[in-house]
Each structure stands twice: as C-alpha cells, then as structure tokens.
Amino acid sequence: MTLTQEEWDAVGKHGVAQIPRNKRGIAFGMLHEPLGEADRAYMMRTLPAPVRMLYPFLIERPWKKYASALRTGTWPAVGTARTGLAMVHKIHPPCRWPLTPSRFGGD
User: Fold this and answer.
1) pTM (two decimals)
2) Residue 5 included in any domain
3) Domain extent for 69
4) Which band of pLDDT confidence, cut at 50, 70 and 90, is reported for residue 77?
5) Structural domain contains residue 12
C-alpha cells in the first residue's frame, strides 16, 4: 500500500490531534532530542514563528523537566497531575483511529 502526501499529512494531523495541547511540547521534545543537527534544524523550520521564538519555554523547558524525571525516577508525589506512567499515556494515548486499507482507497 502506498500513501499519497495528502494521506501522510492526514495521518500526521490525526496523530498531533491525539496529544493533549498541554503535552505537545513534551512530545515534540521527545521526538526532537535524538535527532541529528540537520533533522533538528528542519523540524525547527517547520514550527510557526511564534512557537520558535517561545521554544525554550513551550518545548525545551517542559521536555527537560519531564526527561529528567523519567530518567531519574523522581516523579511528583502520588495524587498530582503528573505521576508516573500515567503521564506517558496522556502524552501518547493508544490510537483508536481505524487504519484500514479502505480508508486510503485500497481494498
């Protein structure tokens, strides 16, 4: 099965829509961190100008805080909004979108 660029764009938009707004910075940081410099530069160019200007506050700071907690296991106290693996599921919940061939014009 081959997807057109329009279909890939739809998949991307759907994926982003599944991430709560207040967790998108963390998700972007999660994707951004392991990339090489050329790929990072490309991703930064795709961000809207206001987001690029506020990158340290909207993306970098929340991601570094989350990554530190993830790597050291120092989560906030139980009962807060950001405990343990529950936050991971809020960032990337299981996808329920039916990715069937008929959705993309196949059989």
Assistant:
1) 0.60
2) no
3) 20-102
4) low
5) no
